[in-house]
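Q&A log
Question type: sequence-to-structure
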Amino acid sequence: MKVRDLGVEELKALVQEAVEEKLEEMLGDPDQGHELQGKVKRRLERSLSAKVRGVPAEKVAGDVGLRW
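Response status: OK
Response body:
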């Protein structure tokens, strides 16, 4: 298949993929090969295991003066 045969969305996807690949190649992962320090690791583990405690949207809207 040739580029001229691609639709707009297909061309966008192709360009996006090429840009992402190039950026990853140029920038890489700056944290690759590094380990989390003890305190940060424990905090992240607690955060990931904690139950989600959200605030209802109605309350947030009311707090800023909006009707939900």
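Response note: The two ends are 51 Å apart (CA to CA).
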